[in-house]
Specification:
Layout (H helix, E strand, L loop, with lengths): L8 H5 L30 H15 L7 H14 L32 H13 L1 H8 L13 H15 L10 H12 L3 H19 L7 H16 L18
Helix pairs in contact: 2-7, 3-4, 4-5, 4-6, 4-8, 6-8, 8-9
Protein name: ELMO domain-containing protein
Pfam families: ELMO_CED12
């Protein structure tokens, strides 16, 4: 079991010895409990938006809830519009990059919001979504990252990077993000799309293979943090990596 300072995504998402093994793990900054961290005051609007986002983050995926079932079916239809889904538990899900025939076991690391993120991506940027799903850009590795589980990992990474489970942001990156969130409540979903596309861009640039996934994620996270700290960024669409989306 992982300690608080380094949460392992492989245990968080599935806890099973699937073919992913421990190759996918969250990219979290290690820290000691005694480390002092600053906090940033929030405006009432920022505080309200953070609380609403935290409510989303706290919702676990529950296969018995109709809304969750419908969201999962909607994700399938967005990814495979010409292929009928035989059931919410089906070997077909492996085509999307889930570890097994039941995607609900993979949502434990990111909760329902990770499904919402994937669905937002599919609807907002369908071409980029399909490009990543089918690995249509660049010279790909013979052993690629699995699309869907990588997506859950990205949700988890962003929550950690932005310190979204804290009462107040404790990093400048987190404070800047909350300003964007107060102006656009879909900011987390949009940042997710940017992060996913950036991760794949780094993957190709580094000529990465499956075992390099953690290194690629760390590189993408650092790049995203640098871009959020640029002085001329007034909205997420100003981020240099936003231009990767089509």
């Amino acid at each position: 079991m992982c300690d608080d300072a380094q949460i392992c995504f492989a245990e968080a998402v599935a806890g099973s010895a699937a073919w992913l093994g421990r190759g996918l793990s969250c990219v979290c900054a290690q820290r000691r409990e005694s480390d002092a961290r600053p906090s940033f005051d929030l405006t009432p609007s920022e505080e309200e938006c953070l609380q609403r986002l935290q409510i989303r983050i706290d919702i676990a995926y529950d296969s018995s809830i109709l809304e969750h079932q419908e969201a999962l079916r909607a994700l399938w239809n967005a990814a495979f519009p010409d292929e009928e889904l035989h059931g919410l538990i089906s070997e077909q899900w492996k085509e999307m990059g889930w570890q097994g025939k039941d995607p609900s076991t993979d949502f434990r690391g990111g909760g329902f919001i990770s499904l919402e993120n994937l669905l937002f991506f599919a609807r907002k940027f369908p071409k980029s979504f399909k490009d990543l799903l089918w690995k249509q850009e660049g010279n790909r590795s013979a052993w690629e990252y699995p699309f869907a589980v990588a997506g859950v990992n990205i949700t988890f990474m962003l929550i950690q990077m932005l310190d979204l489970e804290a009462v107040k942001p404790r990093t400048m990156v987190g404070a800047i993000f909350l300003k964007f969130l107060s102006e656009d409540e879909s900011a987390f979903d949009l940042l997710y799309c940017i992060a996913f596309k950036l991760m794949d861009h780094q993957w190709l640039a580094m000529r990465a293979s499956y075992m390099d996934f953690n290194t690629v994620m760390k590189t993408a996270r650092r790049q995203l943090e640098r871009e959020l700290l640029l002085e001329d960024i007034t909205r997420l669409e100003d981020l240099p990596s936003y231009s990767l989306l089509t």
